[in-house]
Amino acid sequence: MTQVSIVIVAAGRGSRAGEGLPKQYRKLGGKAVLRRTIESFLAIDPGFDIRCVIHPDDKALYEEATAGLNLFAPVFGGATRQESVFNGLKALEQDTDYVLVHDAARPFVTHEVVMDVIKALDAGAEAVVPGVPVADTLKKVQDGTIKHTVDRSGLYAVQTPQGFPYANLIAAHEAALGRELTDDGAVMEAFGAHVAISKGDSGNFKLTTPDDFKKAEQQTMMALGDIRTGSGYDVHRFEEGDHVWLCGVKLPFTKALKGHSDADVGLHALTDAILAALCDGDIGTHFPPSDDQWRGAPSDVFLAFARDRVLARGGQISHVGVCLVCEKPKIGPHKDAMRDRIAELLAIPASRVSVQATTTEKLGFTGREEGIAAQATATLRLPMGDN
């Protein structure tokens, strides 16, 4: 079986896209660009051997971006892209047949682009570079003046991943040490190899400028066009105690909420809202109160589970809201802390989290201060065609 390895080059310091972060760690649709790039390859073939080449200063950013992914340890890059790729190649297993080198800032790589590169290598190509024909008219400009029109016939804008037999590429990099070449196709050209062109995709663009990120956000949102809303409701009665947990925040109080877990009525309702939007049962389905392992459990475990169910389906949480219904304790002073905690648990901005509170004007069980009720809503974006 052919062993294909992917070297993802993520050691650059480029921040022209704004926000002061290297662009591969900027968020795109709630996820770091690098994570989206990795997940694109894993969706094509989970068997790919993926090695990321990163800057030594970015280790914490890398660990945050790739949390939960089963990857090899990252490789530290060099002073140039060429050195970084070489470091990545040296880290690969020697039984690698093909290596595909890809820019971390191209998160929209497709199955077709990758497989066309591999098919060309299977057919005996020494090197394969995907590209798209140049469509715009090209002008040669000097000192702000157009000198002449460039013939665009036969001109291609090249992309990544660029594919090579592993032994050929590492030998070419060894021979090119000390030279500055723009990409791995150029390294192979300098080595005397014939470089084939395969079919690229206009959607497989590289994120460089703020406009690129705007375009990428639009592309991501279009792909997540299945918009769903779910609601949840929960009630817990009071018992003796000295605090309550509400929306992940511990509030000193003269009573406690009775429940199998920590009885956080706000997080329970919100967990059910997310599961409802997924049509994936409810909190009791996944965490039955008859199971002693959940006795006294913090409710953030349940909410994190619901969050991960969304992410596992390639979706994102767009907005959540919780409304707490009680006479006491007073919720107002704690709303911001609750919003921040929910945002932290769901890995979304606090600007997408609403926490409200109301009373029933002394009516009903909440009016008699017998317990607390919570209503919640969650809006999700899932990939089109999701079941």
From TrEMBL:
<dbReference type="Pfam" id="PF02542">
    <property type="entry name" value="YgbB"/>
</dbReference>
<protein>
    <recommendedName>
        <fullName>Bifunctional enzyme IspD/IspF</fullName>
        <ecNumber>2.7.7.60</ecNumber>
        <ecNumber>4.6.1.12</ecNumber>
    </recommendedName>
</protein>
<comment type="pathway">
    <text>Isoprenoid biosynthesis; isopentenyl diphosphate biosynthesis via DXP pathway; isopentenyl diphosphate from 1-deoxy-D-xylulose 5-phosphate: step 4/6.</text>
</comment>
<keyword id="KW-0456">Lyase</keyword>
<feature type="region of interest" description="2-C-methyl-D-erythritol 2,4-cyclodiphosphate synthase">
    <location>
        <begin position="228"/>
        <end position="387"/>
    </location>
</feature>
<comment type="similarity">
    <text>In the N-terminal section; belongs to the IspD/TarI cytidylyltransferase family. IspD subfamily.</text>
</comment>
<dbReference type="GO" id="GO:0008685">
    <property type="term" value="F:2-C-methyl-D-erythritol 2,4-cyclodiphosphate synthase activity"/>
</dbReference>
<dbReference type="Pfam" id="PF01128">
    <property type="entry name" value="IspD"/>
</dbReference>
<keyword id="KW-0808">Transferase</keyword>
<feature type="site" description="Transition state stabilizer">
    <location>
        <position position="260"/>
    </location>
</feature>
<keyword id="KW-0414">Isoprene biosynthesis</keyword>
<feature type="site" description="Transition state stabilizer">
    <location>
        <position position="359"/>
    </location>
</feature>
<feature type="domain" description="2-C-methyl-D-erythritol 2,4-cyclodiphosphate synthase">
    <location>
        <begin position="227"/>
        <end position="380"/>
    </location>
</feature>
<feature type="site" description="Positions MEP for the nucleophilic attack">
    <location>
        <position position="152"/>
    </location>
</feature>
<dbReference type="InterPro" id="IPR020555">
    <property type="entry name" value="MECDP_synthase_CS"/>
</dbReference>
<feature type="region of interest" description="2-C-methyl-D-erythritol 4-phosphate cytidylyltransferase">
    <location>
        <begin position="1"/>
        <end position="227"/>
    </location>
</feature>
<comment type="similarity">
    <text>In the C-terminal section; belongs to the IspF family.</text>
</comment>
<feature type="site" description="Transition state stabilizer">
    <location>
        <position position="23"/>
    </location>
</feature>
<feature type="binding site">
    <location>
        <position position="368"/>
    </location>
    <ligand>
        <name>4-CDP-2-C-methyl-D-erythritol 2-phosphate</name>
    </ligand>
</feature>
<keyword id="KW-0511">Multifunctional enzyme</keyword>
<dbReference type="InterPro" id="IPR029044">
    <property type="entry name" value="Nucleotide-diphossugar_trans"/>
</dbReference>
<dbReference type="InterPro" id="IPR034683">
    <property type="entry name" value="IspD/TarI"/>
</dbReference>
<feature type="site" description="Transition state stabilizer">
    <location>
        <position position="16"/>
    </location>
</feature>
<feature type="binding site">
    <location>
        <position position="365"/>
    </location>
    <ligand>
        <name>4-CDP-2-C-methyl-D-erythritol 2-phosphate</name>
    </ligand>
</feature>
<feature type="binding site">
    <location>
        <begin position="260"/>
        <end position="261"/>
    </location>
    <ligand>
        <name>4-CDP-2-C-methyl-D-erythritol 2-phosphate</name>
    </ligand>
</feature>
<feature type="binding site">
    <location>
        <begin position="234"/>
        <end position="236"/>
    </location>
    <ligand>
        <name>4-CDP-2-C-methyl-D-erythritol 2-phosphate</name>
    </ligand>
</feature>
<feature type="binding site">
    <location>
        <position position="268"/>
    </location>
    <ligand>
        <name>a divalent metal cation</name>
    </ligand>
</feature>
<keyword id="KW-0479">Metal-binding</keyword>
<keyword id="KW-0548">Nucleotidyltransferase</keyword>
<dbReference type="InterPro" id="IPR026596">
    <property type="entry name" value="IspD/F"/>
</dbReference>
<feature type="binding site">
    <location>
        <begin position="282"/>
        <end position="284"/>
    </location>
    <ligand>
        <name>4-CDP-2-C-methyl-D-erythritol 2-phosphate</name>
    </ligand>
</feature>
<feature type="binding site">
    <location>
        <begin position="358"/>
        <end position="361"/>
    </location>
    <ligand>
        <name>4-CDP-2-C-methyl-D-erythritol 2-phosphate</name>
    </ligand>
</feature>
<feature type="binding site">
    <location>
        <position position="236"/>
    </location>
    <ligand>
        <name>a divalent metal cation</name>
    </ligand>
</feature>
<dbReference type="InterPro" id="IPR003526">
    <property type="entry name" value="MECDP_synthase"/>
</dbReference>
<feature type="binding site">
    <location>
        <position position="234"/>
    </location>
    <ligand>
        <name>a divalent metal cation</name>
    </ligand>
</feature>
<feature type="site" description="Positions MEP for the nucleophilic attack">
    <location>
        <position position="206"/>
    </location>
</feature>
<comment type="pathway">
    <text>Isoprenoid biosynthesis; isopentenyl diphosphate biosynthesis via DXP pathway; isopentenyl diphosphate from 1-deoxy-D-xylulose 5-phosphate: step 2/6.</text>
</comment>
<dbReference type="InterPro" id="IPR018294">
    <property type="entry name" value="ISPD_synthase_CS"/>
</dbReference>
<dbReference type="InterPro" id="IPR036571">
    <property type="entry name" value="MECDP_synthase_sf"/>
</dbReference>
<comment type="function">
    <text>Bifunctional enzyme that catalyzes the formation of 4-diphosphocytidyl-2-C-methyl-D-erythritol from CTP and 2-C-methyl-D-erythritol 4-phosphate (MEP) (IspD), and catalyzes the conversion of 4-diphosphocytidyl-2-C-methyl-D-erythritol 2-phosphate (CDP-ME2P) to 2-C-methyl-D-erythritol 2,4-cyclodiphosphate (ME-CPP) with a corresponding release of cytidine 5-monophosphate (CMP) (IspF).</text>
</comment>
<dbReference type="GO" id="GO:0050518">
    <property type="term" value="F:2-C-methyl-D-erythritol 4-phosphate cytidylyltransferase activity"/>
</dbReference>
<dbReference type="InterPro" id="IPR001228">
    <property type="entry name" value="IspD"/>
</dbReference>
